[in-house]
Amino acid sequence: MKKFAFALIIIAAATASVFAAEIEGTVENVDLDNMKITLADGKEYKVAQGIPLEILAEGANVILNTNDDGTATDIMLID
Description:
It holds the Pfam family DUF1344. The protein is α+β, with helices and mostly antiparallel strands.
């Protein structure tokens, strides 16, 4: 039982480090060539490969999930 509980703690710690932050903002600029987006607050985020930036437009409201190095690993459009 102790080994099982320890394994759950390790999994929880690993999962927590995958998503470092959840950031809500408005898209100001989409840089398709460099896979980056800039939010209205001026902060720029590199976007992980596989995320279709083509669907984002300036003015879109989004929630970004970022990893420890600040790379956006998930982008959700919100109304």
